[in-house]
Amino acid sequence: MRVIELPEILAALDEAEALAAVEDGFRRLSAGEVQVMAVGHLAFGDPPGDCHVKGAWVAGDPVFVVKLATSFYRNPQAGLETSDGFMAVVSATTGEVQAILHDRGRLTDLRTAMAGAIAARCIARPGAKVLGVVGAGIQGRLQAELVARTLGLETTLVWARDAARAAEAATALGAEAVALEALCARADLIVTTTPSTTPILTADMVRPGARIVAVGADAPGKRELELALTGRARLVVDSRPQCVAHGEAGWAVRAGLVDEADLIELGDLLARPIRFADDETVVADLTGVGVQDVQIAKLAWRRLAG
Amino acid sequence: MRVIELPEILAALDEAEALAAVEDGFRRLSAGEVQVMAVGHLAFGDPPGDCHVKGAWVAGDPVFVVKLATSFYRNPQAGLETSDGFMAVVSATTGEVQAILHDRGRLTDLRTAMAGAIAARCIARPGAKVLGVVGAGIQGRLQAELVARTLGLETTLVWARDAARAAEAATALGAEAVALEALCARADLIVTTTPSTTPILTADMVRPGARIVAVGADAPGKRELELALTGRARLVVDSRPQCVAHGEAGWAVRAGLVDEADLIELGDLLARPIRFADDETVVADLTGVGVQDVQIAKLAWRRLAG
After folding, report:
1. Which of B49, B152, B239, B280 has the fewest Cβ atoms surrounding its Cβ within 10 A?
2. What does the pLDDT read at residue B306?
């Protein structure tokens, strides 16, 4: 069992290759070629924190991957990173633990940002120029960079509840810190990245034809979008059962506003692209699936195992 | 993040202390003081193998534990150990991964054997002298040793489908390899430890008043006991929801032979012992719960962290 620390992991990753691998993972998932573990989740109250455990095996692969990731939002107050965790690469033929990629949550951050970029590419209107990012944490910054770069967007707007953090993120990103209403009015594509448990974006704020990638609702109780907004939108989901269980889509399905059968899985959308009408509101609800971890960890490990 | 290998882990464990810790874990679980993760499971067909991921946090503890354990039954044919895996010890206040205890599945084996001994102590008839062990794998051997030692049993009988393996185990254990019928007729307490998916023990084989600890049914589809046997027995379970989902108890509940409400949780039985009538058949259905992993890993880590 090799233990690989973060710098070596990052050095082994190529962004374009990783994007392609994660995209392929979504296709395989929707094609029924991935065995997915039940998601493990522990929630802590004081201080508040989360632990997610996800695992999956892509049929035929020599290895499977189980990922543990923690987020403790008050860590920065104590000078600690918010996230920690690892991905275990395990032989699918002997069960031997081949490697612990001690990515400290970073591969999760990256594959989440990559899912955002992949979904954004599928749902963005042609000619989109302005990106609006809601949230100024790690995920907000990563999405801002990767989505803008991948889609070739020209302008990035940032909003966060904490104006000072928003300003700081905007400076770091060469972006513009704006009011939430201004962000919604100007952005062609909005990415929401907060751990909110109450809706932040309302239907009134968002113009018809808006394209929204929501990555915050990764656990039960979390939500960033008002029901009136998801209820009127076409909904793309990374995993139908998981998004119904705890994504933005779940709130809409439970409220009877959306039929589960109408949810479009991202992997299906990648395999059979849809040209959405310009005035259709489209929401991509990304809760994070184990196959993303598998794909990115495999890629790193393939290089590292050499 | 420290990585601790097996010899150091084993050296840090004291058997009596670990037994007490696991027992305390069952009490805490039944008292509602444990946050348990959904069990993660992946199944492999060729070669056949399993991966289980379990995690739990005992309220108030400074750490939680997530365990990954694999079993690939054909590994020995290639000169490999059947099991591998690790337990991750993670801070419940910062999410920092403090340690990977690379126990290679051994702590799982030990805590499973300890649960067997704890359950056996709760359900054995006073004056029990003869132990019958079904299965001659690692778990069969561990249960044979630990249950006999903990309960002070005098004679151990072993049966396994593979007579040569049974004979070998019997020699190693100072036990007697016998036919299954003879084992059932003579044993005061039977422990079943196979990965069977079809019943091995039938109601006819087992005398009234038999006490059975069944540890094999740790995943959907597995079972060692005939329905006619569990249907007539008092059923003790390590976790009510988990045993209903995939233990021996689940088969009986789904068949309408047993009411879920009549299942007795081991932790409740430890807190409020029951004196079973001598002619009552009692089955302890142990599917393995994350709190066992937490308790044994915490104990090792407390010593190792110094």
Report:
1. B152
2. 74
Q: How many domains does chain B have?
A: 2
Which value, to the nearest 10 degrees, does the dihedral of the CA atoms of residues A173, A174, A177, A180 take?
-70
Tokens 């801070």 correspond to: B91
For residues B154 and A73, the model is more confident at B154
Q: For residue A246, what pLDDT is reported?
A: 86
The closest CB to that of B92, out of A35, A44, A100, belongs to: A44
Hey, what are A154's tokens? 């020209």
Q: Which of 58-117 (A) contact B at CB < 8 A?
A: 64, 66, 68, 70-72, 75, 78, 80, 83-86, 88, 90, 92-97, 100, 102
According to the 3-state scheme, what is the secondary structure of A84-129? EEEEEEEECCCCCEEEEEECCCHHHHHHHHHHHHHHHHHHCCCCCC
Please report the number of interchain residue pairs, chain A to chain B, with beta-carbon separation below 8 angstroms: 139
Mean pLDDT of A121-133: 97
Confidence of residue A26 (pLDDT cuts 50, 70, 90): very high
What value does the mean pLDDT of chain B take? 96
Claim to verify: residue A140 and residue A52 sit in the same structural domain: no
- Asked if residues A297 and A65 have their Cβ atoms less than 8 Å apart, the reply is yes
Does A35 share its domain with A86? yes
Secondary structure letter of residue A261 according to DSSP? G
- Tell me the mean pLDDT in the region B87-103: 98
Which of A84, A57, A80, A56 is closest to A70 using CA atoms?
A84
The whole-angstrom separation of Cα B65 and Cα B45 is 28
Residues B161, B164: Cα–Cα separation, whole Å: 9
Q: pLDDT tens digits for B54-65?
A: 999 999 999 999
The answer as to whether A113 is a domain residue is: no
Q: Which CATH number belongs to the domain containing residue B162 in this structure?
A: 3.40.50.720
- SS3 assignment for B50-84: EEEEEEEEECCCCEEEEEEEEEECCHHHHCCCCEE
From chain A, pick out residues whose CB is under 8 angstroms from the CB of B65: none
Instruction: Using CB atoms within 10 Å of the CB of residue A140, give its burial: 0 to 12 exposed, 13 to 18 middle, 19+ buried.
Output: buried
ipTM: 0.90
Provide the pLDDT for residue A220.
81
Which among A43, A93, A97 has CB closest to B86? A97
Q: Do A72 and B86 touch (CB under 8 A)?
A: no
Interchain pair A41, B38: CB under 8 A: yes
Judgement on whether residues B92 and B141 belong to the same structural domain of the protein: no
Give pLDDT, residue A217.
82
Select the residue of B3, B85, B94 nearest A3 (Cβ to Cβ): B3
Same domain for A247 and A296, yes or no, is: no
What residues 15-54 of chain B have any CB closer than 8 A to a CB of chain A? Answer: 35, 37-44, 47, 49-51, 53
Expressed as residue numbers, the domain containing A9 is: 2-107+291-305
